[in-house]
Amino acid sequence: MNERSKYKLKGFGFMFLSSSLMGGIGAFARYINAPGDFIAFWRSFAGFLGMTIIFLVIGGFRKVRATRFSPSILFSGIFLGLLSALYVIATQYTTLANASFLIYTGPIYSTVLATIFLKEPFKPAMLASLTSVAIGTLLIVEIVSEEGFRLDLDPQYMTGNIIALASGVAYGLYLFVSRYREDCDSNVRAWYNFLFAASTIAVMVAFRWSSFVYPVRESINGVPTTTVDADGRPVSAPWSLLEMDGRSWAVLLVAALVTGFGAFYFLTVASKILLAGELATISYQETIMASILGFILFHEHLSGLQFLGGALIIAGGLSQILFSTRGAATSPITEAETAPAEHEKAPIS
């Protein structure tokens, strides 16, 4: 394996770490008595604080000042904030399956956009891998189950479905815009991403503060379980910052560090190394981690089709790693690869 293959493999490793850590947010959130977008804010703000402290210790702000600021740096942070906040808001207005499925349309958008505008290669092998993980996701989030196709288009979920779709668009645009400015240092890019993501969510939180509610949960056999009414709908209650208990704050801190600082930092690093299609195939590993945690921590049942979905996601991810590292090992290094990539010169950069 040559250096280019190792570099690709490192990118896949970072993306796998990122998607695995992000898969834990649902489990953490069950122990936090707070609205989803408040949790989303702390995920990005913890990253901003963490990177700021690190930069102060190592003198990293010299690189920040030396880096040419551009619209792509601004928008990648904004889209990161939007995808995080819109998703958790959507879960309050539609089914979890709908929200999960619609946000995961994002990597497909990014792959299409990168193929058209950045001229990134989209080979049959990548199409096969992406198809495998997409089908696997339909199964693991139970949009397709033993009961048939379960995307709920009931008018009562229209608002939530639109918000969830918007979160998917934001996800796709984040992955797409992150492919610009490959010359930018990953740590600097991460600091800017956290800064603008936290700022974006802060604006949304400020507008929604007076109407904040949180899902009421009760402990059943030691497992925090959402309380539902007679119609089976989740029960929510008005939320006050002063009423958050110590356990919620402690879990929020850990969740912010793990699923925010850690996950989003690794995502930023991976976005510099991998093509949009490669990022897409690995991003779906998040659903596997979420399902594993649900099974272990909350005794959630996993059907045969969900196991099949997980297998398809793993197979698609591994095949993409194999295709990409093999291609990197056999492709000759050209003069174009030693110069800045064409999309680094594009107007948005």
Automatic annotation (TrEMBL):
Transmembrane annotation, as ranges: 12-32, 38-61, 73-90, 96-118, 125-145, 157-178, 190-209, 248-267, 279-298, 304-323
Domain EamA: from-to ranges: 10-141, 246-316
Family, per entry: Belongs to the EamA transporter family.
Protein name per the record: EamA domain-containing membrane protein RarD
GO cellular component: membrane
Organism: Actinomyces ruminicola
Keywords from the named record: Membrane, Transmembrane, Transmembrane helix
InterPro entries (UniProt xref): EamA_dom (IPR000620), EmrE-like (IPR037185)
Superkingdom field: Bacteria
